[in-house]
Amino acid sequence: MSLYEQYRPDTFGAVLGQDKAVSQIERLCAAGLGGRALWISGASGTGKTTLARIAAGTIADDFFVQEYDSADQLSGPEFDSIERTMCLYGMGKGGRVFIINEAHGLRKSATRRFLGILERIPSHVCFIFTTTKQGQDQLFDDNIDASPLLSRCNVVPNTAGGLPLNTV
Questions:
Q1: I need a surface site. Which of 27, 43, 123, 157 has the fewest CB within 10 A?
Q2: For the whole model, what pTM was predicted?
């Protein structure tokens, strides 16, 4: 197991240096994450994926959290699978979560497909996109459909003022 995986926080209280982002996500969780999409952006190493995984755990068991490590993994068959499985409730907590890391890598066709999917998210499903701020800026420069995608998400900015790893 990698060092960063071994010491990755597994509760919101264990996340350091991201008080505003944690507070915002906790409020969203309290209101219910189902039927929502989150867009978490920030500098590399600020805990975007960690926050996404912790949030996912509030509504879905690990087996029902599907994570894509790179947005360019999403193709036609993957979208078909997402659309089929998002209609089904998960066992245990009942929810399903789709985490799309490196969302700045979304192709135009994938962005268009997400526009339709995010219009009809079932109440037990949550989509969480993570990206770097620089990647987000590039996405909006290159892709005319990116602004409508972001408008369908609750935006959670991470700050670069988080604690550096060598101080933890």
A1: 27
A2: 0.90
